[in-house]
Design brief:
Chain A: GO terms for molecular function: ATP binding; ATP hydrolysis activity; transmembrane transporter activity. The complex is a heterodimer of chains A (239) and B (409). By secondary structure, chain A is α/β, with parallel strands linked by helices. Chain A contains seven helices and ten strands. In chain A, helix 3 (108-120) packs parallel to helix 5 (153-165) and helix 4 (125-137) crosses helix 5 (153-165). Chain A is globular, with a radius of gyration of 18 Å. Chain A starts with 6 loop residues before the first strand and ends in a 6-residue tail after the last strand. Chain B folds into two domains: 7-55 and 271-408, no CATH class; 100-257, no CATH class. Chain B has a six-stranded mixed barrel with strand order 2-3-8-5-7-6, surrounded by four helices. The chains are: A alpha/beta (239), B alpha+beta (409). Bound molecules: adenosine-5'-diphosphate and magnesium ion (MG). Residues 18-19, 28, 46, 48-54 of chain A line the site of adenosine-5'-diphosphate (ADP). Magnesium ion binds next to helix 1 of chain A.
């Protein structure tokens, strides 16, 4: 495999301003440089309003930086059109949000299938098998056929993780995935992320407010006022 | 998930099922509008067909007459009384179409002409005892005339096939005189002709004027009674396409120099009434369509707002703008399509109900309603297009949604 593929994500001088040209215009990201390598398991921490969600949206190609370059598995992205961004996002990025992750009109299993369906246009047996495999991997075989609204918060996050993994992305972005779960459910979800990471090459960037969970990551990046305040390797204490 | 269905269809159907109340209400609205259109269209077209048929049942589509002459006092009125008195005597005499056999042969050869029939028409009296009844005599050749006018279907006794000394009289006249088929009647004309004819058939035009005044006799008998040996008063024509009558009439007029009337010109009032009906039908369709479009659009605008989080998540997980656009266009199209099929069905039920309500005292239909099954197809296609157009704005709104903002909520 080409050498640059060892680097999942690269940010060069990323700036982001909202409402450019308006009186309310503010820059919230002030020239970020950051590299995440293949298989890294990274925590992103920082006070509320420091720009963590903004950064995840930029990396996830949902938003465009005002300046700088962003490379996903070596591919520059700032010049890409919406169509190409959608394709790259579908192929390379998996998202897990804090809540309202799933479409309530669909079952757990169908929610996991959705990214495959969007990419290929029509459902087929291979898709169903792949989704069932992931549902099993996140330990939800019993509730796969339930409507997603009928699941508990922890179960919903597990389904969201399965969905984020279904396209075998290079990078999973999780924005406070355990933010509204109780401690036990949060631990379980975090364990799941960790296990998936250990079993694959997929890199993870996880926003969390919980220092206990951050301590279980390989690397901790702290964001303060749109700047990287600290970026340290972390020795994971075995549980 | 149905394997045969594309991604956007699966999503559209799930979204519509989820918002069950919204979907049912807007579909009911579309259905109601379409049922009104189907009902009114069938009613109007039934009415038109009926009026049209009633007119052409009694009247040839084109009538060829002798050329306008000074002998027509009505046309000369504005030229002054002097002239009118001068020409007055000539109006008493029937005039024959010059060289009518040649005209007949010539017109018969024209494209689109289906029947050509010679006719002798004039006034006469039926004399029975003391009574003296004025009637309009029409001399015909049954083999051509019966193809021209729907006389055959109006015969209620005997036959319309008349020759020699046969005659056909209307139901009211027969009752008045107390006669029936097989009876004989004496006919006289102003020019002095007399004949004793036997009744071969009784007709009922459903119109007491025509039933008490019209008498049909054989062409030759009419010629001798009316002192018009070898002549005819008109040559009458039917076409394959009745609505081309005016054009064909003008062609015949140009070729023969005779006076040629088309049913379109003689029924100008009837046609302007038809036009007014079609106009109001179009206006109704337009406003029903507009109302349906506004309804669908407003439901979808609300749906886009309600689903914005879902749209954001779909976009984050690899759904393209085009797919989101199609998802909402499809919801508009499906609303229009399903609503219109329901509506066409309901409209059809209305029509069946109408058939049972709108009947004459004798139990026959007031007028037959023609239900064209193509109306279903037109309604479905039209409503689907309206649905797509209505969905255009909300769909663009959904496709342009910034996923980052949508997810942040
Ligand atoms: N769409 C937006 N328009 C304007 N300002 C925004 C928008 N999104 C975020 N911000 C601002 O950017 C800053 C960073 O926000 P965010 O990335 O949500 O921080 P965090 O996720 O770390 O709490 C905040 O000051 C926030 O008000
Ligand atoms: Mg945030």
């Amino acid at each position: 495999m080409a050498d640059f593929n060892a680097i999942t994500l690269q940010l060069k001088g990323i700036r982001k301003a909202y409402n450019v040209g308006l009186p309310a215009g503010t820059e919230v990201m002030h020239g970020l440089d950051l590299t995440i390598e293949r298989g890294e398991f990274v925590a992103l921490i920082g006070p509320s309003g420091s720009g963590k969600s903004t950064l995840l949206n930029l990396i996830g190609l949902l938003d465009k930086p005002t300046a700088g370059e962003l490379l996903i598995t070596g591919q520059p992205t700032t010049q890409l059109q919406d169509r190409e961004l959608t394709l790259l996002r579908a192929k390379s990025i998996g998202f897990v949000f804090q809540f309202h992750n799933l479409l309530p009109e669909f079952t757990a299993l169908e929610n996991v299938m959705l990214p495959l369906l969007a990419a290929r246009g029509r459902p087929d047996e291979a898709m169903r098998l792949r989704a069932a495999e992931l549902i099993e991997q996140v330990g939800l075989t019993d509730v796969g056929k339930h409507m997603s609204n009928d699941l508990s918060g922890g179960q919903q996050q597990r389904v969201a993780i399965a969905r984020a993994l279904v396209m075998q992305p290079a990078l999973v972005l999780a924005d406070e995935p355990t933010g509204n779960l109780d401690t036990k459910a949060a631990d379980n979800v975090f364990d799941l992320l960790r296990r998936v990471n250990e079993a694959s090459d997929t890199s993870f960037l996880i926003v969390t407010h919980d220092p206990r969970l951050a301590q279980r990551c390989d690397r901790i990046i702290e964001l303060v006022d749109g700047r990287i305040d600290s970026d340290k390797a972390n020795r994971v204490s075995s549980p | 998930m149905n394997s045969a269905m594309p991604f956007e269809w699966i999503l559209a159907i799930r979204f519509m099922r989820q918002a069950r109340m919204q979907t049912l209400l807007i579909m009911a609205g579309v259905a109601l509008g379409v049922s009104v259109i189907v009902f009114i269209s069938a009613l109007i077209s039934g009415l038109q067909t009926n009026l049209f048929k009633r007119t052409l049942d009694f009247q040839a589509q084109i009538i060829i007459l002798p050329p306008k002459e000074v002998s027509r006092p009505l046309h000369q009125a504005e030229d002054g009384a002097m002239l009118a008195t001068l020409v007055q005597p000539r109006a008493q005499r029937l005039q024959s179409v010059d060289q009518w056999q040649t005209v007949l042969a010539q017109v018969a050869k024209m494209d689109g002409v289906s029947v050509v029939a010679p006719v002798v028409a004039g006034a006469g009296f039926i004399v029975r005892g003391e009574a003296n009844k004025a009637v309009g005599l029409t001399g015909i050749e049954p083999e051509t005339y019966l193809q021209l006018i729907a006389l055959n279907s109006k015969i209620i006794a005997g036959t319309a096939n008349i020759t020699g000394t046969d005659m056909l009289v209307g139901l009211d006249l027969a009752k008045d005189l107390g006669v029936w088929t097989g009876d004989k009647l004496n006919l006289q004309t102003a020019s002095g002709g007399t004949a004793t004819l036997s009744i071969r058939g009784i007709f009922d035009y459903g119109n007491s004027g025509m039933n008490s005044r019209s008498v049909y006799i054989a062409l030759r008998t009419a010629q001798s009674l009316l002192d018009l040996a070898g002549g005819v008063t008109s040559v009458e024509v039917n076409l394959d396409a009745p609505f081309t009558a005016e054009t064909v009439a003008q062609t015949i007029q140009a070729q023969t120099g005779l006076k040629v009337d088309s049913w379109i010109a003689t029924n100008a009032q009837f046609f302007s009434a038809l036009e007014a009906q079609s106009m109001s039908n179009t206006v109704i369709r337009f406003f029903v369509g507009l109302t349906a479009a506004l309804g669908i659009a407003s439901v979808l605008v609300v749906s886009v707002v309600q689903k914005s989080k879902a749209i954001g998540i779909l976009r984050a997980t690899g759904t393209s703008r085009q797919q989101i656009l199609r998802l909402f266009l499809l919801q508009g199209a499906l609303t229009g399509l399903i609503g219109s099929l329901l509506g066409a069905f309901v409209g059809w039920l209305f029509l069946i109900a109408w058939r049972n309500i709108a009947i004459n005292a004798d139990g026959t239909q007031l007028f037959p309603i023609t239900f064209d099954p193509m109306l279903f197809v037109y309604a479905a296609v039209g409503a689907t297009l309206v649905g797509i157009l209505a969905a255009l704005f909300p769909a663009l709104q959904a496709a342009r949604l910034d996923p980052a903002v949508a997810i942040r909520g």
